[in-house]
UniProtKB/TrEMBL annotation:
SUPFAM superfamilies: Thioredoxin-like. InterPro entries: Glutaredoxin-like, Glutaredoxin-like_YDR286C, Thioredoxin-like_sf. Signal peptide: none annotated. This is Glutaredoxin family protein. Gene3D superfamilies: Glutaredoxin. It holds the Pfam family Glrx-like. It comes from the Bacteria. It comes from Leifsonia stereocauli. The lineage of its organism: Bacteria, Bacillati, Actinomycetota, Actinomycetes, Micrococcales.
Length: 82
């Protein structure tokens, strides 16, 4: 199973936009799951990503910052070896 992790915070409009794109794309990939983390709940995440949210990780590796492109995400999820 592929795990996507969206790192953001409440009230972040770019995070809301990213979540919408990821959720739409994930309807095409039933073997993928989305986890969400908030920089407000984790000092290490805040220190690392505060200026880059939203951040989308695929299986723990950074896929993108700020804006999620649906086509790029689809391509990443269909590539056998990431």
């Amino acid at each position: 199973m592929t795990t996507l992790t969206l790192i953001g915070k409440p009230g972040c409009h770019l995070c809301d936009d990213a979540r919408a794109v990821v959720s739409t794309v994930l309807t095409e990939f039933p073997d993928a799951a989305l986890d969400e983390l908030s920089i407000l709940d984790d000092d290490a995440l805040r220190d690392r990503y505060a200026e880059e949210i939203p951040v989308l990780l695929i299986d723990g590796a950074v896929h993108t910052y700020w804006r999620v492109d649906a086509e790029r995400l689809r391509a990443a999820l269909t590539t056998p070896a990431r």
